[in-house]
Amino acid sequence: MRPLFIALDMATKKEALTFLDGFHDERPAVKVGMELFYASGPVIVEELKARGHTVFLDLKCHDIPKTVERTMQTLANLGVDLVTLHASGGKAMMEAAKEGLETGAPPGTTAPRCVAVTALTSLSEKQMQTELLIERRLEDTVLHFTDMAVRSGLDGVVCSVNEVQRIRGAFGEGVYTVTPGIQLAETNSDDQKRAATPVEARQAGSNAIVVGRAITTSPEPLKTYDTIFKEWTGYSYG
Fold first, then answer.
1. Cβ atoms of 121 and 194 closer than 8 Å
2. How confident is the model over 146-166, as pLDDT tens digits?
3. Which residues form the catalytic set?
4. Is the full-model pTM beyond 0.70?
5. Around Cβ 174, how many Cβ atoms within 10 Å?
6. Mean pLDDT, rounded, for 42-46
7. Cα angle vertex 221, ends 217, 222, to 5°?
8. Partners of 178 in beta bridges
9. Spatial CA neighbour of 63 closest among 75, 71, 55
10. Which residues are annotated as a binding site for substrate?
11. CB-CB neighbours of 140 under 10 Å
């Protein structure tokens, strides 16, 4: 199963859990980002796991290797399923993260997957070149960061639909690709420069997608989720 993660970009634990109550007995995969985790702490992950959700903890760690290693030990002990870090932190940092996840996972459990953020989907090539002073083309930069992540032992990368096929061509099917910025065809977004639809992500070969406001602000979240799930997988949810 290729997961569809709902981005719980909410300010409180109560808001997030109340939203998920609307899914009744279903347990969709969810993404917890900085806003919710910093507001609620580890307890939000513990409650989501206790309810039976697959949890993608998206904190995008970026620090010196030892700090990231210890952080990943803590996150692995929470029982999350997927974590992120910034590839721009370098190979040593990514290797330390992998070590931390493996040593921090409770005995008898599998360490969480770890994927590297290559370039935020809110970032355009022009911004990358003029603001970050990275002169390469954006897709070439993503491929470079993917190569670093693979050589560091990580499971994959976070990238836009635009880069998935090039990653597949360069590194094969073994690289786990997570694609954020997923929207319905009729949706416009001011903060996503490289957005795509669920169908485009499926056709490109993404392993997992992340959908936020299209679901969480919908008048009928469960119905919208099912629509996106059908487009993503080809069959109904539940």
1. yes
2. 999 999 999 999 998 989 999
3. 58, 60, 63
4. yes
5. 9
6. 98
7. 170
8. 158, 208
9. 71
10. 9, 31, 58-67, 121, 192, 212-213
11. 14
Mean of pLDDT over the chain: 93
CATH number of 4-233: 3.20.20.70
pLDDT tens digit sequence for 183-207: 887 665 555 455 789 999 999 999 9
* Percent above pLDDT 70 for the chain: 95
Please state the separation of Cα 27 from the chain's center in Å: 18
Which of 230, 193, 197 lies closest to 211 in space, CA to CA? 197
Q: Which two tokens stand for residue 165?
A: 């096929």
Tokens of 112: 């969480």
Look at the block and give the residue holding tokens 């990358």: 128
Question: Is residue 208 within 8 Å of residue 3, measured between CB atoms?
Answer: yes
Where exactly are the structural domains of the chain? 4-233
Query: Strand locations in 50-161, DSSP E?
Result: 55-61, 82-86, 113-117, 156-158
